[in-house]
Amino acid sequence: MDTPDPIEFEELAISAGACPVEILTGRLKQANARYFIGSGKLEEIAQLIQLHQAEIVLFDHPLSPSQERNLEEGLKCRVIDRTGLILDIFAQRARSYEGKLQVELAQLEHSVTRLVRGWTHLDRQKGGIGMRGAGETQLEIDQRLVRVRIKSIQKSLAKVKKQRDQGRRARQRAEIPTISLVGYTNAGKSSLFNRMSESDIYVADQLFATLDSTLRKIQLPDLGSAILVDTVGFIRNLPHQLVDAFRATLEETTEASLLLHVIDASNEEHPLLKDQVDKVLEEIGGSEIPTLLVYNKIDLLENQEVTVDRDKNGIPWRVWVSAKSSLGMAQLFQAITDILGVDFVEPEIILSPQQGKFRAKLYHQNVVKKETVDDEGNVCLSLRLPKADFIRLLQEENIDPALYVEQAHPDDDYLETIHNPAT
Questions:
Q1: Please, are residues 307 and 320 in contact by the beta-carbon 8 Å criterion?
Q2: Cα–Cα distance between 295 and 176 in angstroms, integer?
Q3: Fold match between 175-340 and 344-419?
Q4: Is it the case that residue 205 has pLDDT exceeding 60?
Q5: Which residue in 256, 349, 363, 367 has the most C-beta neighbors within 10 A?
């Protein structure tokens, strides 16, 4: 487990609506099986509860159901662990139908093993006809109802996932790249999203201000349309229930053409936070996707100018911007274009009048930049499209790609003219 951050945990508590009155830290070589903490620390917390008349105790660690029950009995106070706290924040912030279902699923899966504390006082109910045998306890009934609800939510989320997959496939058929914003919570993803898409989605200086994925179409220089996606922020020790529940939403990240990893450059711990995000990306299968690091909030730094850092091949890998002050937006858009346009080609192709269906296909995929017609009715089309798609289109028309694609790249001084053998 990663080292706890008291400041971040306090921000989590405030985000959930709590008013922290005391922060207590300690070191344990080994967790106590009964209370997680030692007897001395338990007594210290009990005294602080009396002193501040506290109503709840929050632990920045996952607790087992039995530890939670024992702590509540010992402290005479409600106890919530880190997972329960984050789930509560998500429950408050979810707005969309899908987001509410995802949060409810995560809450139910977290609580199903904790129901015992609410039903230990109930005896077994009687059986069926003739009142034979012991029936279910109220606890067993409640657990069964929870599991029924979990299955119902999973079915609903499967339908939402199917709809999301259909939309994603439609974008792929239209050759529209998807750019997904990822990053640690409160890094400024939503502010950057608003600035890039000229939108006005909710922005706040708090943890997990955004839960529901938002998609907007944007225009990139020389490339045309792209889909920009704002996603939920990551955090240390993100509960597995949330990773699983939000997997359908996070697939927008794993299926993206490019990830913009937004980093709060003003946070001194940003290298550590970046590593935390990388861990989650690896867990959900997004670690192999091309990534551009976007160091945000440079308006809070001294002597940091807008900069685009490139690798030895001239490909951008980091951009310094300020979403709040609009600094570096033009450079960011150009960096995105440079990355997504690396494998683009710009050929000219001549089609005969009989090849109208092929011409229509090219227009449908929005890859035609210019069209001219000669005296014989042949159509000359100037194209711009990914190299892989160009090869596929040539193969569909029975043209050998090896004859043309090597010289049909934007870096060339000329555009190779492709004559269909049929003309």
A1: yes
A2: 26
A3: no
A4: no
A5: 349
Rounded to two decimals, what is the model's pTM?
Answer: 0.65
Topology of domain 175-340 in CATH is Rossmann fold (3.40.50)
Give ∠ CA 264-269-271 in degrees, rounded to 5. Answer: 80
Quote the pLDDT of residue 343.
Answer: 66
Per-residue pLDDT, averaged over 283-297, amounts to 88
pLDDT for 18: 85
Q: Per residue in 134-183, pLDDT tens?
A: 445 666 777 778 888 888 888 888 887 777 677 666 655 556 788 989 88
In the three-class reduction of DSSP (H, G, I as helix; E, B as strand; rest coil), residue 60 is classed as coil
What distance in Å separates the CA atoms of residue 337 and residue 316, rounded to the nearest whole number? 10
Contact status, residue 290 vs residue 267, Cβ threshold 8 Å:
no
CATH dotted code for 344-419: 3.30.70
CB 252 within 8 A of CB 180: yes
Boundaries of every domain in the chain? 6-80, 175-340, 344-419
Torsion of CA 352, 354, 358, 362, to 10 degrees: 60
